[in-house]
Amino acid sequence: MADPNPAQVRSYLAAGLACEHLEVEGDGRHFFATIVSAEFEGLTRVRRHQRVYAALGERMREEIHALSMKTLTPAEWAAGGAAPQASH
User: Fold this and answer.
1) The pLDDT of residue 6 is above 50
2) Considering 21, 44, 59, 75, which has the largest number of Cβ atoms within 10 A of its Cβ?
3) Judging by DSSP bridges, how do beta strands 21-26 and 30-36 pair with one another?
């Protein structure tokens, strides 16, 4: 099986998660995604990442070796792309 390219990973994410903005960069094994979705509203960073992994399903085990991501709500994206810090 050939390694996926960034466009393929982007299409996998878009198919499984309603995104207002989606960028994916990578080299076929390691990817970085900026994902803006209203589905992230009210979720912690861990829950947001779990939602992304769920959208990718088995591809995370079989095709994608590593995925770093920035997960933002539309309001966070509009405010400059910085997710709020988790409260301690």
Assistant:
1) yes
2) 59
3) antiparallel
Residue 82: what pLDDT? 61
Cα→Cα distances 81→35, 36, 57, 69, Å: 10, 9, 26, 12
Distance in angstroms (rounded) separating the CA atoms of residues 26 and 87: 31
The string of DSSP letters for 20-84 reads SEEEEEESSSEEEEEEE-GGGTT--HHHHHHHHHHHHTTHHHHT-SEEEEEEE-HHHHHTTS-PP
Strand 66-72: give its sheet, edge to edge. Answer: 21-26, 30-36, 66-72
Mean pLDDT of 55-74: 91
Predicted TM-score of the model (pTM):
0.87
